[in-house]
Write a structure and sequence with these properties.
Helix 5 packs across helix 7 and helix 10 packs across helix 14. The chain has two domains: 278 residues, Glycogen Phosphorylase B (Rossmann fold, 3-Layer(aba) Sandwich); 190 residues, 3-Layer(aba) Sandwich (Rossmann fold). By secondary structure, it is of the alpha/beta class. It is built from 20 helices and 20 strands. The strands form four sheets. Strands 3-4-5-2-1-8-9-13-14 form a nine-stranded mixed beta sheet, sandwiched between helices. A six-stranded parallel beta sheet has the order 17-16-15-18-19-20, sandwiched between helices. The protein is elongated, with a radius of gyration of 23 Å. Pathway: Glycan biosynthesis; glycogen biosynthesis.
Length: 496
């Protein structure tokens, strides 16, 4: 099967979050399964700086923006190690900027125009390059108009090569919808008759994500639980009615992890590498290294807790900070890594100053340090308010660091709570709690500390987590089933 993946972010070219990881790892896994895959993203300034061996194809695309024809170049590269082609849509006036979507906490005011251009140019690039995909896989709001353009423009053209091309629209985070002023509609070139609640309009705004959810053949999101949550008024962000109406075409597939990037047996960032058979000695060595790096007291007998991520309410940092004094009154250590809300950064600084040798806050993001923390910690905290999928809990399982999560979204799908029954049957892989409160977090930590003192039980918990298969090949097979479904649906429609 020929799959074309469109994404506003692809690692290592451009990344602000987990979308970039998915858009890099899924194509590699699909290629390993024997499928032909290509990727298209914008040629941001940072993408041109970070991407490997980018070259000019010499091909030009012209995309209609309102009543203008806007020209762009097609650049080419590849995903490391080099066998998945990547095409970048280059238009410096749109993409040669410091940020991807904005700067200094403010979105760029022309984001609607920028991503209209990207989507139209990507479709033109498919034609110019002769890619002939069977399925186009769209990701998040920045690609939401692609299924609309296919249906309302391209498939209506005589001899269109897009007639039988299926579409899959993946929601990575429903909070980000690409909602713009309704008077931006002329930029899209689409007819005003489509600006209605059954098509492109949501709450008076032009909504890119909604457009994709209405027009795509198949919908997906990044975990089964999140797929259910977004169909409720509480989790649907105003689109729950549409998602319920399309629930027969909505699927939840948990993201995977790349075993070439997150594998303690080959990780170059670790003090000692280890496997599921050698983890006790390996984690002991990495814990000692992490305690030294973080300036913590060198006490291997204490449980070492960790948290990594963007410092905001969605990730549950308010619960960690509110409960920090109570947690630190226990006999434990804590290392955190992340940047974000200045209030949380200041609070963590104060806590670290008040608890030297017990708490270290790295207010930065460092990928090598994230690897060392995953390897050196005993327990990983992830008390998210909501979490479409989450990746850190999967990294933790792979590294023998027991995850402690709030039971929401992908966290509920990937971490089996250590109840007495789950411990007896060997299915437990971590700890979870439901109520989004500091008290519930602390109670879950207390349960974990009680099991920590039962070394044999803790070892079985670590073993179970490390043996679980959360690699991308598992997820990629599920996506192939969606691609087959999208192609069948589109073929039946085009034949009719």
């Amino acid at each position: 099967m020929k799959v074309l993946l469109l994404s506003a972010e692809v690692d290592p070219f451009a990344k602000t979050g987990g979308l970039a990881d998915v858009a890099a790892a899924l194509p590699r896994a699909l290629r390993d399964l024997g499928h032909e895959v290509a990727v298209i993203l914008p040629a941001y300034r940072r993408a041109l700086a970070a991407g490997p061996e980018i070259r000019d194809t010499g091909a030009i695309v012209r995309a209609p923006i309102a009543r203008r024809s806007v020209e762009g170049r097609i650049l080419a590269s590849a995903l490391p190690p080099g066998d998945v082609p990547v095409y970048l849509i280059d238009r410096p006036s749109y993409f040669d900027r410091r940020g991807l979507y904005g700067e200094d906490g403010q979105d760029y005011p022309d984001n609607c125009e920028r991503f209209v251009f990207f989507q139209r140019a990507a479709l033109e690039a498919i034609r110019v390059l002769g890619l002939s995909p069977d399925v186009i896989h769209c990701n998040d709001w920045q690609t939401g108009l692609v299924p609309v353009y296919l249906e309302e423009v391209y498939r209506r053209q005589p001899g269109s090569p897009f007639r039988a091309v299926g579409t899959v629209m993946t929601i990575h985070n429903l909070a980000y919808q690409g909602a713009f002023w309704h008077l931006d509609l002329p930029l899209t070139g689409l007819d005003w008759s489509l600006f209605n609640p059954a098509r492109l309009e949501a709450h008076g705004l032009l909504n890119f994500l909604k457009a994709g959810l209405v027009y795509a053949d198949v919908l997906s999101t990044v975990s089964p639980t999140y797929a259910r949550e977004i169909q409720t008024p509480e989790g649907g962000r105003g689109l729950d009615g549409l998602l319920r109406a399309r629930r027969g075409r909505l699927h939840g597939i948990v993201n995977g992890i790349d075993p070439t990037a997150w594998n303690p047996a080959i990780d170059p960032h670790l003090a000692a590498r280890y496997t599921v058979r050698t983890w006790p000695a390996g984690k002991q060595a990495n814990k000692a290294q992490l305690q030294a790096e973080a300036g913590l007291d060198p006490r291997p007998e204490l449980p070492l807790l960790a948290a990594i991520g963007r410092l905001d309410v969605q990730k549950g940092w308010d619960l960690i900070i509110e409960g920090a004094e109570a947690l630190l009154s226990r006999n434990l250590q804590l290392v955190v890594l992340g940047t974000g809300d200045p209030r949380f950064e200041r609070a963590l600084d104060r806590l670290a100053a008040a608890h030297p040798g017990q708490l270290r806050a790295f207010l930065e993001f460092s990928q090598p340090r994230a690897h060392r923390i995953e390897a050196g910690a005993d327990l990983f905290l992830m008390p998210s308010l909501y979490e479409p999928c989450g990746l850190n809990q999967l990294y933790s399982l792979a590294y023998g660091t027991v995850p402690l999560v709030r039971a929401t979204g992908g966290l509920a799908d990937t971490v089996v709570d250590a109840t007495p029954e789950a411990l007896r049957d060997g299915s437990a892989t971590g700890f979870s709690f439901v109520e989004p409160s500091a008290e519930a977090l602390i109670a879950a930590v207390d349960r974990a500390l009680a099991l920590w003192r039962c070394r044999d039980s803790w070892a079985r918990l670590v073993d179970s987590g490390m043996r679980a298969d959360w690699t991308w090949h598992r997820s990629a097979r599920a996506y192939v089933e969606l691609y087959d479904e999208a192609q069948r649906l589109r073929s039946s429609r085009s034949a009719g």
